[in-house]
Amino acid sequence: MSLARALYSALTWAAQPLLLRKLRRRAAAEPGYGHAVGERFGRYEQPLDSLMPHSSADPLGRFVWIHAVSLGETRAAALLLAELRHQLPGMRLLLTHGTATGRAEGEKLLHPGDVQVWQPWDTPGAVRRFLGQFRPAIGILMETEVWPNLVAGCRRRGIPLVLANARLNARSLRKALRVGALARPAYGGLSAVWAQTDADAVRLRALGAPVRGIFGNLKFDVVPDAEQLARGRDWRAHSGRPVVMLASSREGEEALWLDALKQNRHEALAGEAPGAINNEAFRQRSAVQWLIVPRHPQRFAEVQQLLQGAGLTVSCRSQWGEAPVPADVWLGDSLGEMALYYGLADVALLGGSFAPLGGQNLIEAIACGCPVVLGQHTFNFAEAAALACEQGVAHRVADMGQGVQYACQLVTNAPALAASRALTHDFTQQHRGAAHLTADAVVGLLGLQPQ
Question: Which is catalytic among the residues 73, 83, 254, 267?
């Protein structure tokens, strides 16, 4: 073990009480974080024999392990998993996560014989127990999740470990290079890396990663839930006003949105208290129906209180029956219904892009036929954002104020909105195929033939 990894291992071991404290705190808001905490440290209730009924010499009798840390990675993993199950009928999945939302979404992907546990905390002991318990035939890390001890443990056991749908922005590269003695062996110890873009490949190679292909972004292969999409579009047709959504909003962005309403003359009369919006003035002046869908479920109540504190009436998705209930703002307080929300919206302001957070998944919005307005911060989807702007299915603005203004203008300009919406299908179709390419590469690395 190198000196750098020995020091890192000591720090991660010492940080375990802090991790436990953090999990207890998060579990108060999201109970999922309190579930099976022992798994985080490589301790499992189920005996190995009950998990491994097949011959351990047969790769298909062992787990194909996919690690998808959070919600976005889990949805990308679902696309890859569908292709893997097609090529490898009967494969057994070991699915790991780091967040409660990722784990809840991942439950939907399980078949009989599959196993779902938390990602082990990256101490040598937890990693050793995890790998000894499940003995996967291969490990597939989604997008960015490279952990030094996990990589070293897999190499020691001869388990091929790959990074799929891999991305690395310039900021992350700079951070990794500052701890190069730790990062370079971790990236260099992977068996293969399949990058999203040429630029990602260049940055990953700068860390010594074995880039074996540039396959595009798995998220382009998404097929929106047809029933949700149809229901959302039906609700939109009966809404009475065009619908603009603030999609997957992050902390602070709802406050920026409230400020933008004032700046764009959607505010109350002069002289009101700061942060307040005159309810009657809002109804009379707003040409659109606003829909806000926070990215994290633990913020649903917080966002509702913020909006109500500003003088707005709020109708929550959890309280709707056959149709949305009239209100100044609709609040999307449900999980797993983004296709419904994008179907309901004429245009979406992309959350995470109006604060320096890298932006959320614009590909999903476009696949649902919903044009997107972007802020300046889209480094998590840099190439997809640039392509979308070039091809007219997204529009970049300087800040939230411009975003609100542009979206309101677009939804009231029927020819421009129709033209932008018509381009979304072609844009999505042009960039599909990463799931098939990645599954082919996984099967090849296992030395198997697709069935």
Answer: 73
